[in-house]
């Protein structure tokens, strides 16, 4: 089992690999075992289910359909009943393992499903689950698994993605919520339709923990509102994926998240210390559960994470494996947009107005004057209404407004006062309030 | 040749022969052209002889001014014919300099609108014939001004502005760039207006130029029809990201305020629902999350989680889950837990020395919050958060009863605002609003219309009829006898006018005053 393995799209277009016939390696799996494999860099692997039943992170495989996995994918194919698989292409490793915690995860799902049934019967809300643990223990995979199982039973759970570094919903540096209506695609992951996305702007919550907590509360509020009008969403509950930062402020953020979402169950992966601390700091009615991590989870290097992030942004503009979307490039005049950065640099206490605390600066909007250093930065287009913005009677601040899309600045012409942007939609920009991210994207391919 | 103001004389005289002799011309030229200066108005009749004399003098002056024969050079006069069916004046001889700013061509013929013709008659540049007889200015007033063309009030404003040097023409709502065009920054089509006029001559020359009553119904609905596609376009454009914006309908609803939804439902029944995450939630509903928390806690003795932490002590085997709870009705066996207990904490924790020390300190001194009896008594989050809130507020001083325990309580809660902005937001009872906000949804009014586009005088900017550009302002004519424009009207008109300001010309028995509404923002704390 690995984390976010299928979310890595291939480097180049084309979903079929020429010459890869049926002459692949055949694997026969016993019941409750899994085939783990990693795809070599620059290679592609095709997987085919010959007989029996198998699933990839909870999404069932179709028999005799070829699934292609791009370079760097780390996949685990699990079978409950036993199956035969064919694998063709170059893999780094490929082995069958009996040692999987899937049965524990399935039991977890069964318990959550029991809660959903009870919620349905008693007209109450469904389970809200938070998945926590250090980095590289398979948090995202467990989320995907539980969501897939739930949606296969006809539930409508919500995925709340708080991992700003490796978001599975939108580009990195965002916090998002996504209603799951069908199981994840084996290759592409969950279909990303109409997510709610908030701008965070950085890949670690540590850069602005106050904003992180505020946006967590925003998401929780929106989710509760949704539950109030949508019964199925309420029963389906939510599964919250968190960051791998579990020390200090990161831990405090987890406790804050638990109270903002009013979670019922916390799944702690692997780390017993975290389990004990959460048991101590969360009220008794919250069920804290310790689960093992899968032996198949691979540790990812910093470079690997950065590449995944880059791929995620590329996928946003060019579509899965870079073939389905065609983004637009056009000029935007500086005078037409307002660019902000969230969080002012901290200043000594002695310089602050009386009674103002330092923390306020973290949520301040700082206007950014466009310049050459803006090049390659990812900008979020805030949903805040242009005419309302700035007025005192405005309904929602820029901070609390979701994002309607992202653009990348590809060039800045300070002389002509224009910047060239890469945008998923043609001009004009729908809104004119832009928020700058620390994340850069260089469109090389 | 002289045009006379009085009808009776005019009918009897043979006009073309009415030429003046040199001494008469000389006399006419040396006449005093100054308009007598009126002093301040007397409002009350005092009955004194002095006042009566002053009044009489002023009246006499007025009459001599009006009755004065006007002398024009025959060569300067342009002949034209009044065509009442089309409400137009067609020129018969080539137009003069006024053609730069007035008139239009219809099938090769030069035409003037009635208000333009009347103004030019007053200026002595045009001689209008009807049934081969010249019209006097008085007749012009009677013939040209009607609710279908322009009213007297409108003409007074028109003439006033013309005399001041402005270029004035009728306002045609269809020439205003739509919201969408403005957003795209499209240049105004070069000959939009002229083309527009030309096209209309083909089918209904009347429809385009009549702009009061009979056609105003049709006209007034025009702007809405025209802005509608723009709004729809706008709605589409908002979907920047094909993936981000396809909000599921129920999801979108989540964000909308019930009130807002209702309002939208009322005003734009036929419009496609706008697809964004939230529309304006000006009166943000404070959510009491507690409403939805179940009063009953989950019974975790029935709902069994495979918790490795608690099973350290006891049961080492998990019963097989009910197949009904599993996808695809899976049948799985029991699950041994014990082997997994050894497979915990696989991921090595890297703590710096300081972190480690802090950790140990916390372990030693930090109490389990569940040791607290009150916390143990809470059954769900709502109760727990309420308890926490209560404890927090207990730390503050007790609030004085005469302030907080009555119907009227202070607007701002102590301790809740930590910046000036928060405080200002809490005490702002009247919300300031943008003039254009929500205006797109308003139905157009029957009574209020924009009448004229006004352009700067020639000296300031070059005016071209074929490419008029952006007007300096737009005029809405009203009278002191009529009602005062309300907020609704102002919103509608300024929305219709777009980025050009709207001025209200208020006519009071010939005196015209101009009013415009300027938007300003209340000072706020910028954060």
UniProtKB/TrEMBL annotation, chain A:
The family annotation for this protein states: Belongs to the Clp1 family. Clp1 subfamily.
The record's annotation in InterPro entries points to: Clp1, Clp1/Grc3, Clp1_C, Clp1_C_sf, Clp1_N, Clp1_N_sf, CLP1_P, P-loop_NTPase
> To which species is this protein native?
Pygocentrus nattereri (Red-bellied piranha)
* Compositional bias (Gly residues): 12-24
- Residues annotated as domain Clp1 P-loop: 133-319
Q: How does it assemble?
A: Component of the tRNA splicing endonuclease complex. Component of pre-mRNA cleavage complex II (CF-II).
Reactions catalysed, semicolon-separated, are: a 5'-end dephospho-ribonucleoside-RNA + ATP = a 5'-end 5'-phospho-ribonucleoside-RNA + ADP + H(+); a 5'-end dephospho-2'-deoxyribonucleoside-DNA + ATP = a 5'-end 5'-phospho-2'-deoxyribonucleoside-DNA + ADP + H(+)
Which residue stretches belong to region Disordered? 1-25
Q: What is the protein name for this chain?
A: Polyribonucleotide 5'-hydroxyl-kinase Clp1
UniProtKB/TrEMBL annotation, chain B:
- InterPro entries in alphabetical order: tRNA_splic_suSen54 (IPR024337), tRNA_splic_suSen54_N (IPR024336)
PANTHER family, A to Z: TRNA-SPLICING ENDONUCLEASE SUBUNIT SEN54
Q: Which residues cross the membrane?
A: none
Note the Pfam families from the entry. tRNA_int_end_N2
Indicate the family of this protein: Belongs to the SEN54 family.
GO BP term, example: tRNA-type intron splice site recognition and cleavage
Q: Domain named tRNA-splicing endonuclease subunit Sen54 N-terminal: which ranges?
A: 64-130
Segments of skewed composition (Basic residues) = 193-202
Protein's name according to its UniProt entry: tRNA-splicing endonuclease subunit Sen54 N-terminal domain-containing protein
Provide a GO CC annotation, any one. Answer: tRNA-intron endonuclease complex
UniProt keywords (A-Z) are: tRNA processing
Name of encoding gene: TSEN54
Q: Where is this region: Disordered?
A: 193-212
